[in-house]
Write a structure and sequence with these properties.
It is a single chain. The chain is an all-alpha fold and about 350 residues long. It folds into 2 domains: about 120 residues, no CATH class; about 160 residues, no CATH class. About 60% of the residues lie in helices and about 0% in strands. The chain has a two-stranded antiparallel sheet. Helix 6 crosses helix 16. It is globular, with a radius of gyration of 27 Å. It starts with a helix and ends with a helix. The relative contact order is 0.09.
Amino acid sequence: MSEREMKATAAPAEARPAAPADPVFTISSSPHIRDGETIDHIMWQVVLALLPVALFGIWWFGSSALINMAVGIIAAVGSEYIWQRAMHQPLTAMDGSACITGLLLAMSMSPLLPPYMVAIGSALAIIVAKQSMGGLGFNIFNPAHIGRAALMVSWPVAMTTWTKMADLSGGAVDAMTGATPLNILKMQGYDALVATFGGQGQMYTSMLLGTRNGSLGETSTILLLLGGLYLIYKGYINWIVPACMIGTVAVLTWIFGPAGLFTGDPLFHMMAGGLFLGAFFMATDMVTIPMTIKGQIVFAVGAGALTVLIRLVGGYPEGVCYSLLLMNAVTPLIDRWLKPRIFGTGLEPQAAKGGAK
């Protein structure tokens, strides 16, 4: 043994090189930011946010509302399960996304719609608008609105048929007979609308609480607002989208009032129809909305403007469904125009491809 080897052997443990410590950084593939959220958890949280509105619809409209909601959910979940089994795909029918589609579809329709029509609409929403596009994450259009639009074209009379409902005191409310508030406004004018409620104050109260005619899930503005605020609090949706959409409707309906400029009633139009349901629960759909904040603002303002255009000029009294579908169609274009700057360069994506000049 050489002298150097003998010294190394005899050296005390303190002088020996220490064993390599654990690495400071763990190298792994993306994603690097992880949390406990899953698709299933987010989807069922959205269902929870819709639950108060659904229960109010059952209480206000009766057993027909419960039946249509149950049929819509069962048909949506069943359609997704059958499709995935037939196509030998992983089964995701119970992740909550199909349940949301069926529930939203039922809540956006008349409580008097025959259940078989609700089932057809749910099946079309899942098969045509979702699964045929590749499943969750690949659909271009909001599935619930595709189902509603298909039913509106196929059975327009049934989709717009309403009935008289009892008010909280047990009597009958004249404003609830035959038409929704937006229908009355479209056919008879604003003065007739206020008269049917017995005054402007009573009209605002009914619109806020939900004691009026309308689709299953669009009547109670206060419950829709609370559900939307819950999703914002949980971080599942961005408050900018509903704020821009509802704000656009308010400003434009105030400017382009029925009697001239700045004579509209923005408060009524904010609470009327399916605006709150669409703004909080459909316009914020993670799949069909633009990726950037700027793009989402353009999307929401465009949807609000189209809603006003259809309400005030178009043939339909309500325009939320078609306005969102039209904006879904241009979402890829919005994403293409409003690309974010490349991080760390300050360059637009197009400039970076060609190199800095």
